[in-house]
Amino acid sequence: MNTEQTPRSSSRSHVPSSIGIHSVLYHPEPGQVDRFLQGVRAAVAVARRCWPDLSLTLQIGDCSSDPTLGSDAVDGLRKSLTCSGLSSFTYQPFGRNMGSAGGHNALLKESDADAILIVNPDSYMSPDTVVELLSPFADAEVGITEARQLPIEHPKQFDVRDGTTSWASTACALIRHDLLREIGGFDAETFFLYCDDVDLSWRARLAGYRVVHRPSACVFHDKRLNGEGILLPSSAEVYYSAEAALLMAWKYSRPDLVEKWSGELLEGGNTEHRRAVEEFRRRQADLSLPEPLDPEAKVATFVDYNYAQHRFGVGG
């Protein structure tokens, strides 16, 4: 992988003529898939009106223990979705939980689209999402564009002039397929659930691409909140976010943060935090951690437990 931030040549770029929309299920709540597909249909319809020659496909992978969709449902969706403007629809049950990174890598192997739009299944895209995410790709240096999340906007900073930001959340992000091939897709060996998108963004930036936040592209991303508007993470989210923080610090050449955060999580954390430290240390002892990158900190940004400066605070 190229570790220098080399500008892209404008002659190498064009706005993608085909987009593969990818989503990975894991035991979705009742009605979640139907709501997700409603957003997809609307976004596809608007995109096709703006670019009649744009080809859009939909691939859904399923990490649930049993398939969420039966064969009759898949056949019905294939007919209705293609009538809505999609070129094709495929549904792939994996039969096991491969994690977010693993599930998306499996879908990428089956796609030949110019760009991949990754969308969480608990999200609902606004009708102009595809149009707004696609527009910045006229710039050869743009490799990833991300949508603004509602009702809880992610607080990381971005340049108000051109949208440049530290990393893109794959709750809803459009990515050049050539970029994904160049950097090898998601690091599924390291990240199971969290920070696979931060890592992907940083490796894209090391390869010379820009990551762009696009506030005009909006996606509703369902979140659990209490009565005061504070996020309520599940125990799995607490565990994997802590584990991912240690893995990010290791992978991006910050052993000082690994030591500091391990101590803080053990001393002041909860059971999930302590489990995350134990798992990290097991992987370290087994020599199964990734080779560290970016020793000169060209792209890696660590602010407290965050991976960018924040514009405002969230949480309790």
Observed structural traits:
alpha/beta, 316 residues, 8-stranded mixed β-sheet, single chain, Spore Coat Polysaccharide Biosynthesis Protein SpsA, Chain A, 8 strands, disordered N terminus
Structure description:
By secondary structure, this protein is of the alpha/beta class. The protein folds into two domains: 209 residues, Spore Coat Polysaccharide Biosynthesis Protein SpsA, Chain A, CATH 3.90.550.60; 51 residues, no CATH class. 35% of the residues lie in helices and 18% in strands. It is built from nine helices and eight strands. α1 links the parallel β1 and β2. α7 packs antiparallel against α8. It is globular, with a radius of gyration of 19 Å. The N terminus is likely disordered.
Summarize the structure.
This protein is α/β, with parallel strands linked by helices and 316 residues long.
Secondary structure layout plus pairing:
Elements: E1 18-25, H1 32-50, E2 55-62, H2 71-83, E3 88-93, H3 99-108, E4 115-119, E5 123-125, H4 129-134, E6 142-150, E7 172-176, H5 177-183, H6 196-206, E8 210-221, H7 235-251, H8 255-268, H9 271-285
Helix pairs in contact: 7-8, 7-9
Question: How much helical structure, as a percent, in the residues?
Answer: 25-40%
Largest sheet: 8 strands, mixed
Radius of gyration: 19 Å
Structural class comes to alpha/beta
Taken in chain order, the helices and strands follow as EHEHEHEEHEEHHEHHH
How many structurally independent domains?
2
Number of separate strands: 8
* Beta-strand content bin: 15-25%
Highest-level CATH class of the largest domain: Alpha Beta
User: What would you say the CATH architecture of the largest domain is?
Assistant: Alpha-Beta Complex
CATH fold-level name of the largest domain = Spore Coat Polysaccharide Biosynthesis Protein SpsA, Chain A
Determine the number of helices (DSSP H or I, runs of at least 4 residues). Answer: 9
Q: What general outline do the C-alpha atoms trace?
A: globular
How far apart are the termini? 39 Å
Strand order of the largest sheet: 3-2-1-4-7-6-8-5
Q: Give the rounded overall mean pLDDT.
A: 93
Flag low-confidence runs.
1-6, 9-13
